[in-house]
């Protein structure tokens, strides 16, 4: 009996021969030569030869399978690298977009913080300037005491303050308030002012000194002038006059102290 290996070879050979085209009558002798797979040829092979042929065929099939597997692996590796590159590029763009957005946010926050710091610094500078001006005005008010001590100079000042107050009210009856210690000087000022007022306005006027309500003694000096019912007042104390002058001359004072403001086009 034939070995198992030989039977498999014979079976494969028979199937192979069945698929072959019939031999033409005019075929050449070489065509009529027996095939290596012809059963007659295989019958002449030993089991060792059959096993050798089978191993050869298996090695060939295995080689083709390995090559096919390598081809599949190479294609899969290529597709993997392409997809990986696409994903990496997508994520890189997302990361760049994220950090670009964060950078813009940080830059905006820096601008806001810088603006806040500049505003705070500007406010501090303005406060320091205002404090300096307030200190100067306070010092000026303290120096007003020197004016009061000079009786002649103070009398002239009171004359002008009383007359100015009368002109501002232009009432038929008016009253004047002063510090108690200034009463003699104010009486002189009123007596001088009435004729001048009548001459200028061509009107009669009745001016009384309020000796029931004196101004506080801690003020520097000056007068307050009221209409007949006391509802309208002209404050001509030395402090109020200093405040008025300071307000009117504040642009000049600031320029003298801190220099000209380049953003200021007009002087108040």
UniProtKB/TrEMBL annotation:
One of its GO terms (cellular component) is proton-transporting two-sector ATPase complex, catalytic domain. Coiled coil: none annotated. It comes from the Eukaryota. The keyword Transcription does not apply. Keywords: Hydrogen ion transport, Ion transport, Transport. SUPFAM superfamilies: V-type ATPase subunit E-like (SSF160527). Pfam families: vATP-synt_E (PF01991). Gene3D superfamilies: 6.10.250.1620, ATP synthase, E subunit, C-terminal. One of its GO terms (molecular function) is proton-transporting ATPase activity, rotational mechanism. Signal peptide: none annotated. HAMAP family: ATP_synth_E_arch. Subunit of the V1 complex of vacuolar(H+)-ATPase (V-ATPase), a multisubunit enzyme composed of a peripheral complex (V1) that hydrolyzes ATP and a membrane integral complex (V0) that translocates protons. V-ATPase is responsible for acidifying and maintaining the pH of intracellular compartments and in some cell types, is targeted to the plasma membrane, where it is responsible for acidifying the extracellular environment. Belongs to the V-ATPase E subunit family. This is V-type proton ATPase subunit E 1.
């Amino acid at each position: 009996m034939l070995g198992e290996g030989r039977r498999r070879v014979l079976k494969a050979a028979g199937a192979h021969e069945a698929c072959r085209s019939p031999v033409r009558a005019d075929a050449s002798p070489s065509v009529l030569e027996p095939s290596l797979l012809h059963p007659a040829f295989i019958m002449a092979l030993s089991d060792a030869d059959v096993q050798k042929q089978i191993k050869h065929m298996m090695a060939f099939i295995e080689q083709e399978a390995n090559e096919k597997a390598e081809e599949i692996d190479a294609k899969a590796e290529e597709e993997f690298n392409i997809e990986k590159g696409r994903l990496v590029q997508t994520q890189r763009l997302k990361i760049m977009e994220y950090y670009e957005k964060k950078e813009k946010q940080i830059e905006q926050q820096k601008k806001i913080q810088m603006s806040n710091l500049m505003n705070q610094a500007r406010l501090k500078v303005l406060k320091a300037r205002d404090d300096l001006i307030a200190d100067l005005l306070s010092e000026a008010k303290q120096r007003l005491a020197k004016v009061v001590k000079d009786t002649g100079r103070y009398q002239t000042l009171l004359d002008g303050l009383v007359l100015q107050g009368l002109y501002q009210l232009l009432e038929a009856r008016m009253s004047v308030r002063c510090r108690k210690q200034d009463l003699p000087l104010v009486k002189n000022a009123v007596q001088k002012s009435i004729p001048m007022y009548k001459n200028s306005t061509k009107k009669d006027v009745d001016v009384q000194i309020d000796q029931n309500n004196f101004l506080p003694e801690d003020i520097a000096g000056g007068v307050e002038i009221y209409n007949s019912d006391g509802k309208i007042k002209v404050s001509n104390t030395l402090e109020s006059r200093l405040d008025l002058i300071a307000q009117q001359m504040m642009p000049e004072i600031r320029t003298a102290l801190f220099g000209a403001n380049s953003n200021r086009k007009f002087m108040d």
